[in-house]
What we know:
Layout: E1 2-6, H1 11-22, E2 26-31, E3 43-45, E4 69-72, H2 79-84, H3 87-106, E5 110-115, H4 141-160, E6 164-169, E7 172-173, H5 186-195, E8 200-203, E9 209-210, E10 213-214, H6 215-230, E11 237-241, E12 247-248, H7 249-260, E13 266-269, H8 284-290, H9 298-315, H10 326-333
Parallel strand pairs: 1-2, 1-4, 2-3, 4-5, 5-6, 6-11, 7-10, 8-13
Antiparallel strand pairs: 9-12
Bound molecules: nicotinamide-adenine-dinucleotide (NAD).
Amino acid sequence: MKVLVTGSSGQIGTNLALRLLGEGHEVFGVDKRQNTWTDEFPTLLQDLAGHYAPFPGGINGVEYPETDLVVHLAAHAKVHQLVGEPHRALENAVMTFNVLEFARQSSIPIVFSSSREVYGDVHRFEGYSEQAADFAYTESTYSASKIAGEAFVYSYARCYGLPYLVFRFSNVYGRYDNDLRRMVRVIPLFIHSMLRGEPITIYGGREKTLDFTYVDDCVDGIACGIQALAERRVVNETINLAYGQGNTLVYCAERIAQELGVEPQMTLAPSLLGEVTHYVADLTKARALLGYDPRIPLDEGLARSIAWFREHRAQHPEEEVPVRADHERAQELGEGWKSRAPQSG
Ligand SMILES: NC(=O)c1ccc[n+]([C@@H]2O[C@H](COP(=O)([O-])OP(=O)(O)OC[C@H]3O[C@@H](n4cnc5c(N)ncnc54)[C@H](O)[C@@H]3O)[C@@H](O)[C@H]2O)c1
């Protein structure tokens, strides 16, 4: 197959593209940044968030190669950043619109990367099956961008017969996620900070529970979905992709510390605005429709992630510098970030 991957320089895009190449598919990447991890597939450098005139062929009239299917991963993918800079949420919606227009005009199916964020802070649900999303509880501008993206996808299926799969990912971690100057994610941030003997803060407190997904499991699910959609075995479905088990962030931090052989210095703090504090995916649908079978539990995934982190850091000692989390940057910019909890003082 010839697969066009948007956001191909990012964490999931890079892992997915390499996996598809390994299976004998052709990959064409589109991203506004060069891929810093690999040059094994071509990347068109293009900003997908422009308001472009109607285009024949590729977005903004750029000639794309022949394509069988598009996987749309490009997005501003960080909750706190989008709470601080909400115009980026609108850009996410515009990117999705442009990619949908490309898919419609080329008559090719689309895989859209949504998020567990569309469920909101799901303490109010007993289970987390795909129908449980309730958009009256949009937690953040990032959630809004994913809800808008899904809505556009569903409308294109209804109005133009566009075949799709929507995947809702959850806390994907592992290989190619430790470019901390670009994107601060909790697991590489904890590894980075603990290796430097620095304290960490757990926002959301001791109970905060998430479904961490090792990137190879996530990519397995997407690859199965691509095959199933291309063969029209599974069409127009919305599917959770995660590991299917909740782990507290505190446990995650303790395991990282244990693996690194350090004593963690943890501070607990109230959750940040827009944050989901409890989520465990229901994978019934993914298992039934795609034979999805995630294999890497958190302990194993953390060991792999730390081994990869150490190897990568040994080759890039220049990355051994202090890192500020996104919400600290947003706060400094005075962009309206505030804690969910009442401020003292
Ligand atoms: N990683 C996770 O835990 C997770 C969880 C839920 C959903 N998702 C979604 O999955 C997708 C991939 O996530 P990721 O972890 O690989 O994120 P990432 O940030 O590593 O990759 C996203 C890529 O999109 C590109 N991009 C952003 N704006 C663009 C624009 N205007 N034009 C072209 N390219 C642009 C970025 O340069 C980046 O390379 C995203 O849509 C994200 O919202 C990820």
